Amino acid sequence: MKRILIVEDEALVAISIRKKLEKNGYEIIDISTSGEEALRTCASRRPDLVLMDIKLKGNMDGIDAAERIRELYDLPVIYLTAFSNVEILERAKISAPYGYIVKPYNDRELFSNIEIALYKHALESRLRESEERYRLIAENSSDIILQMGGDLVITYASPAVLPILGYSPQELAGKSITDLFPEAPGQGLRLEEIVSGQSGGLVELLVRTRDHGSRYLELNLAPIRHKDTIMGVQGTARDVTERKLQDMRQRLALAILDMLNRIRNTGDVVRGIVNLIREHAGFEAVGVRLKENGLFPVYEQFGYRAEHLAAEECRSPLDQDGTVRCLCGMVIQGEREHCPESFTAEGSFFSNDFGEYLERCGGEQLPGKPICGIYGSVAIIPLVSDDQTVGVLHLCHGRVNMFDAESISFFEGIAASIGVAVEQERSRSELRKSLAEKERLLKKEKKILARERELQREIMNAIQSERQRIGRDLHDGLGQNLTAIAFLSEALTRKLGGPESAGSAELEEINSMISGAIMQTRLIAKMLSPVPIERDGLVTALEGMAAHVTKLYRIPCRVRRSNGFEVKDDIVAENLFYIATEAVNNAIKHGGPEHVDIILSQEGQRLVMEVRDDGAGMKTAQDIEGGLGLGIMKYRAMMIHAEFSLEASNGRGVAIRITCNGSPLREGAAESSGYKERRI
Prior knowledge:
The protein has helices spanning about 10-25, 35-45, 60-75, 85-95, 105-140, 160-165, 170, 190-195, 240-260, 265-280, 305-310, 325-335, 355-360, 405-495, 505-530, 535-555, 570-590, 620-625, 630-640; strands at about 5, 25-30, 50, 75-80, 100, 145-150, 155, 200-210, 215-225, 230-240, 285-290, 300, 350, 375-385, 390-395, 555-560, 595-605, 605-615, 645-650, 655-660, 675-680. It is an alpha/beta fold. A six-stranded mixed sheet has the order 16-17-18-20-19-21. Helix 10 packs antiparallel against helix 14 (about 405-495), helix 16 packs parallel to helix 17 and helix 17 packs antiparallel against helix 19 (about 630-640). The longest helix is centred in the middle third of the chain and has 91 residues, at about 405-495. It starts with a strand and ends with a strand.
């Protein structure tokens, strides 16, 4: 049941209206006779509708009262009055009534006006609620809500436009959206397609802010249609600058990391990084200075004017004595006294309005014309490696406000990578020079060592030849003379009459001494050349030595040879014989073995000789390092470029192994013998 307030100062008229309304199902909450009383009733009881007479008692007439009710309580008012002149009607229209009924009236007219007013007020209330909801959404949205006409002129922008672009909604109203990106007119083509209805959806634009910076906006737009006519465009604009910057930084970081992993040359690395920064970050000028002989000349650059680069004062930021010449020198030296607020904690300088910086901080007083003086946004970042500044990175853009703390921090990380890469390459270069010098010295040493080996071999050949000559002279010369003397002595004995004759005893003693001298001469000759100069001479000599050991010490000594073992080099054969002799003598002297084996075998192209015994072995490391003729054996192995190894087991004998190249020795044999020993 709808509740109605009647405002009428004539009681009979008011009662008549009340009866008619109640008869038709309306509830009359009160009858007021003045505007003041009507306001109080509306405040306390809130009717659904007010029937208002224009002429009332008191200081407030019905029109004034209706205006106050609409302003304060948003209630529908229907004028029910006898006044119908033009002046009263004009005043009544200002109060926006929901009806105007002139007395006298009929009931049908009254009821229809009441129902229409109630229905209209309900619709308007719902519309206002909807508008309020959308207003709250628009005013609290982090995205910009836009409406534009068909000519792309902005008719509405939500408050979010202020923190994103720096414009107030009122400042944007009446501007064409294309005014926000005059540097890239091609961006408007997609908008024109949306306005014409050819396409809709997302479009990404680079938009200039009020402070002449730039932001990336992602617009989600749709045309506003009325029947078949496109009235305009509406939608939202989201700030995606940070996402775009993060994507750019990630791509740039990955590209630089890939380059650092692939390229080692300093010039190629710096040149590649300069191009990558220009390509991905969009700077108009990028440059790198690198330390060289204590100075920092421009190493690589893109975008700077030739007259700036050609100026001598710009070639290095420091004088020969280290005096600062410009901002680069301040960054290199870590000086921040000049406008310290423009420097980061890592020592980087940046300005989002370089011209204003020069005026504010007196930058014009710095020695040297700034290489970046014509740009709006400027950053100079040190290239640091191991706490040493090895260069600087220049980043310049024509527009202002292109940097923030996060972007500078990112490029400080890039600069650190460049600094490390540059120093690593310089270290590698120094290492390559050092290695080249070391290789040169090593080659020289190898030549000297090879010559020493050659001289040693020549000496050994000469010694061997001389020993063989002396042996032959003893055998063929002295031996033959002694044999002839022995024959003459025997003949003299027979001539004197045999053993019983005078002097026979002395002759017998002489004969015995001559025989001893002959045997000693033959033994010395054999020792001077123990290995016969013939096929298998080493094997024959070892077998003879083994037979002598077996007969002399009554300890079985055997020589075992596999097929293919053959030594053709006399020096190798002779040294192997002496090593085997020393090993067998040491085993018998110190180990007390029951058996001694000399094993000759071939492993591929290498010859192997092993001397094994089953004696007491070796007890201490001192035994291995100190005695038993090991020094002599190792020296002989070294002389023939052979590997010497020893296995010693306490209580289980000793095994000595000599491994050498096939005979004759090939060129390029090991420079020295290897010595391995193992205790079990």
